Give the backbone structure.
Amino acid sequence: MSEASRSPQDPATDAPRPLGAQIDVHDPRVVAAIDRYWRKNVAIMTVLLVVWATVGLGCGVLFADSLNAFRLGGFPLGFWFAQQGSIAVFVVLVFAYALLLNGLDRAHHRELERIESEATAPATTGPRAGGSGATR
Amino acid sequence: MNPETFWTYIFVGSSFALYLAIAWWSRVRDTKGFYVAGRGVPAAANGMATAADWMSAASFLSMAGLVATMGYSGGVYLMGWTGGYVLLALLLAPYLRKFGHFTVPDFVGDRYESVVARLVAVACAIFISFTYVAGQMRGVGLVFSTFLEIDVNLGVVIGMVIVCIYATLGGMKGITWTQVTQYWVLITAFLIPTIAISLQLTGNLLPQIGMGSELVGDAVPAADHGTSLLAKLDELHHELGFASYTDAFVGTWDRLNVFCTALALMVGTAGLPHVIVRFYTVRSVRAARWSAFWALFFISMLYLTAPATAAFARYYMIRSLDDKTAEELPDWFRKWESTKLIAWFDDGDGRLQYRGAADVTHEERNEVFHIGKLSAGEFDEIRRTHDDWLASDQTRGTDGRVRLRAAGVAGPDRDIIVLATPQMARLASWIIALVAAGGLAAALSTASGLLLVISSSVAHDFYFRLIDPEASEKQRLLVGRVVIAFAVVVAGWFGINPPAFVGEVVAFAFGLAAASFFPAIVLGIFSKRVGTVPAVTGMIAGVAFTATYIIGTVFAGMDRWCFGIGAQGIGTVGMLLNFAVTLGLAPLFPPPSAGVRDMIETIREPEGEGPAVDIDSTPEH
């Protein structure tokens, strides 16, 4: 059942077609690709977490009394950040994360596919066709 | 039967029937479906289920009340319970989905290759879940007793039976789809009254804008027309001796305490096992990320509205009570008076005075109280001697207000605010009934999710992984169901005999989650250097410190010796201690084994995730 659910036609999974052969983790190009992926991931995460801390704990808490001197419509600004603004920003942050990281995942997948097809190209059968993974 | 009770029976009855029908439709026969819904739940549906799971009776019933009472400082709950999702989405959810086992203790146990770590995690998961369930059952009792006019205990028993049927029958799959339904029930029940009140007070359709707008309309006294709602609240608060509504850092809520409490709630949210387990139920790592987004999106619907509900309720509360005579008092006050959650102890002038505790003069004039931690007998006795004192022109009996002030039960019980606000605004009786059904949906959805965590912790992490690894699928499922039934009974017992310290115990749950799971999981994913000994020592240090401090300050009268931080915020210090101990010891002990390092690599690498089994297509179903 597990093999069946991973076939490319299976609509139950939105994951891309899995790479046929096991990724060769000892291939230096694969190691480099994984390393790059991880560093980009950590960079995106760090930026988003800095925004999270600045808006939530900064504007909502630490500087709330100073920000209350300003007004946004009928709201004192610090109060608005604590009860409205920070929550809205949190939603946007998680949205941005899902968008950016899923994009990064796709780019990473394409890169691995390229490495794999280069590795199997000399064998003239081209990239594995049916997802059986038995070309080698 | 009055129309309110009639509509409540209709809404509560039909929603319960719907939940049971869904449980029957999605019943499961294998452990995978029982614990993680076969990992076949779409991201948006999983997000709704997570939202319902997360938004408990506390979010639905108590939070707006807390914000109404605390003003600015109430924001710690709003920020804490949503900000935690950012941590969860960025630091935990995708990696735990990739790891792909059943439970949080599973991850901790496998990553640190330690039975002790697994046991600490199981104990924390069970403690946190029970703490929470106790709170939910009180919510169920509150709704049943006030709206259906039946005995609180009978109400709790009905709730227990319903949860038990759909949790044992459907497991995670049944619970997931029931929670999707419950999300819609509870969010509709929360939004409709607030929108109606916003229109009534400010003429604005969006409560989020309404709470910052000027007061208009027939429901508002002419003197208040044209003033902005928040400015009016600040003015009334000042006049009546309450701490300012919008100013930051008033009273005991200084900058450090607000900061620590907000952070502890955020980190605690990210470490709560019943929320984390949700991310095992989605199809893929990508779906886990979208699922986290949908969850926060659906949660924010309620959390962005609650502060508006709070401000509107606060305004109504002051305007409809203060300086009124017995004849002028509104119906909702009379209705809730019978529950003793709000009570009036007159000083003899026949006019109700609702005052804050900004200074002694104001505090002594206050005439509004609630039963709080007093027993019904004590409360009635105070009432009798107070009436005697009034009738005898202060020659006999005692001034009840003095005794109630000493007991610390001034003001109305804040749990009634969400339930009473639609009545304050004189909304239609079907809307009021809808709120009752929503409160029940919130309590039951959270209770069922928690019961499943308790069941999986005992049956999977404890029985299967530690006692009998040979157990068959059938045996494990049986143990899981028996544990759920047992846990329901224990939870029901807490609902019928609620511990007087539910609030403090919930702070305890968050503190423990923050001080135990969060650092262990984050370091488990993001560090390949942290080995078994440092992580286990860190967890034990964090838990021991947090537990000692909370028990000491709340129950044993210990000073707040740690920079004056209260019980709710101390989880932040416990978490920092856990991180410090773990990272400090890590270089001195061997790194994890090669097998564990490979596992970490696999978790970080998005390719080659485990298959998402859709149980509907499995042969045995």
